[in-house]
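Notes to self after the Tuesday call (sharing in case useful).
The group wants a holo model before anyone commits to mutagenesis around the pocket. I volunteered. Ligand is alpha-D-glucopyranose. Logging inputs and output together so the record is complete.
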Amino acid sequence: MKFGHFDDAKREYVIDTPRTPYPWINYLGTQGFFSLISNTAGGYSFYKDARLRRITRYRYNNVPIDMGGRYFYINDNGTIWNPGWSPVKTELDSYECRHGMGYTVITGKKNGLKAEVTFFVPQDYDGEVQQVVLTNESGSDKTFKFWSFAEWCLWDAQDDCTNFQRNFSTGRVEIKGSTIYHKTEYRDRRNHFAFYTVNDTIDGYDTDRDTFIGLYNGFNNPQQVLDGKCGNSLADGWSPIASHYKEITLKAGESKTLVFILGYVEMPVDKKFEADGKTINKEKALAMMEKYNTPEKFAAGMAELRAYWDKLLGILNVNTPEDKVNRMVNIWNQYQCMVTFNLSRSASYFESGIGRGMGFRDSNQDILGFVHQIPDRARERLIDIASTQLPDGGCYHQYQPLTKKGNADIGGDFSDDPLWMILSVSAYIKETGDWSILDAKVPYDNDESKAKSMLDHLTVSFYHIVNNLGPHGLPLAMRADWNDCINLSCFSDTPGESFQTYTNPKFKAEGGYSKVAESVFVAALFTYVGPNFVGILNHLGMKDEAAKAQAEIDKMKKAMMDSAWDGNWFMRAYDAYGKKMGSHECEEGQIFIEPQGFAIMSDIDKDATKKTLAAIDERLNTKHGLVLNNPAFSKYYVEYGEISTYPGGYKENAGIFTHNNAWIICAAAYAGEGNQAFKYYSEIAPAFTEETSDIHKTEPYVYGQMIGGKDAGSDIGQTGKNFGQGKNSWLTGTAAWNMVAISQYILGIQPDFDGLKVDPSIPSSWDGFTATRLFRGAKYNITIKNPSHVCKGVKSMIVDGAAVEGCVVPYVEGKKEVNVEITLG
Ligand code: GLC
Ligand code: GLC
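Result:
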């Protein structure tokens, strides 16, 4: 069942009911100011850091769901409604929400009055602009009352929801004309304020929540709206809000447009106030208001935003026989990659933005998905991340975006972290050809005196693995590898102890983690990522270093076949007692997804590849995607850490973790199994799940982190309960990896050190496809023909009329357009 449809020409998802199976949201903003907005206008705004600089308040996990947002209320002779249905939830005569690239349009109609509200955050602008167009379609004159509403957060979102004995006494506002200023703490240590304004006169306002809503009312029935008036309240402590009030009369057929701005302003300390020392200096705020205070200026801002996305989405464009693939690749997957670049895992309805900073592994993987769109910002991000690395190649697992410093509370020793940086820096060089990044001087532990070249960072990353091997010559598992919930050193049976940061007394003397527990996943990742490091060294003419690194990769491959091959797939690990994990010998959790894909793509053994792909299909595949492990754990295995704390079928315990599904899609495509790759792709790609939105529940235009697995409900005798239900949408490494899987492995358009490689692995039923790709200053027009209906195999490649061997289009400096024609066979 669907709840809307794709409008590809406009790059919008059109939602036709407010009762979606979950709030379906969008992200506004690309630089400093960000907003989340649901299809009923719920959500919140912040500046740069969702925790430290929160502008509007949001109550997570609320009942009913998604309460709090920017709301407009209409009282039309006693009928009270919102253009986005919620929070009043009066049945509308019509409703539509269009989520587009960086904007959202919500339109509601009731009793002949139409309200169309467009929300966006303009480029280079620290505010959300909202245009309300009210049209009287009733055939006779109409007089009604209109309110805006926003609830201020007292800046630090975590403090805001905990420290009430202070917070109930600090709220302050200032009102001038049609603008409500939120100046809590501005008099003392803060040099920033926020404002909410409208480009028209108002008939009143409220800034005190209890006066506007009433202590025992809710967002669904604010007292002032019920009474058809306003309180002109001035907040002093308690809970400051911003609400404008206006009485409006429209003749039959007449429209009125109002432009609201929710803005954020920072001021130099000596310019904070007017001469009286207490009135806000509004110079900057007024200039911001001036910028979007007419419908014409509003339209110009929207046009600029469209041009920005036209440019970003113009870099890669494909035309395949499958519309759903085209809309994922050309629009939504790339859009989601940009959102994950902007926000990493910090601010959503699930990652609430009051806890985590930027993840070392997460942010490195995100680079893979957006590096082609904004290579300069990718370079900056790479240097930020590398600056938090430690001199021995270890890494802080997270860093804070505002300070850019490693987070000491979470610390390090996550065994996979360093490898992702080799992968992301390689991806950057392959995309741009900018080898100079390797010479950039990058600090260790944010200490400039310890700065060394980026190449040095990659070298210590590589050898951090080599220098930390266990008894079988496989990498030590440490606190966790990619799977945060396989904690072969940090296991504990005391409630509340963190599985990632707890130091088990057993391993204290050994440096905090077991010297026996080994990760086959990290081994596989090492053999997949390692050749990139070797490629870099060879390019730099460092032949001895390259040979030395290659020897380590070969040794690791041998260790994997000797000690980690289980007969039909690769094992997952050795635990701290030296026992096998992820083997057919185990009672539960016999096969895990994570090591398989990277092992296949490392060309360890042809026969192993075949058997592994078959085992994946048999043991892990379902109609909703590949589960993480099988069988699910039904008991608590203390020595494995967090994983078996989840009931079977959820999260890391046999949930469908879509992030690692992409590794199998890549691997199947790599191995030439284009049909198998495409089958797995279409099981999880959002556009394909649209038809079953009632089961999938989360947005059909973006990936989520997890989908309930086939074992969900097995613990309670309801196997299959929540099977197929998506969870934790938007901020996930799935976005980047599925972008890689579809564009680089299935469609096969893959930047390489020496040029653009084109080596598709597609469904054999396809006749071919075409694509355009901007790459290092040239436009590549790519045509793929598949007359023999194979999956993979470049039979011939013609570049600008001349036959070229292989499938890498050699890079020629200065060329502006390149025509590539490939015949598979
Ligand atoms: C979450 C984390 C990611 C981790 C994954 C698996 O998505 O953000 O870092 O790899 O879970 O545990
Ligand atoms: C992942 C896990 C979560 C864990 C967290 C720690 O997101 O899914 O359970 O607590 O990582 O970083």
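Two things stood out.
The mean pLDDT is 97.
Residues 345, 359, 361-362, 482-485, 652, 705, 732 surround alpha-D-glucopyranose (ligand 1) (CB under 6 Å).
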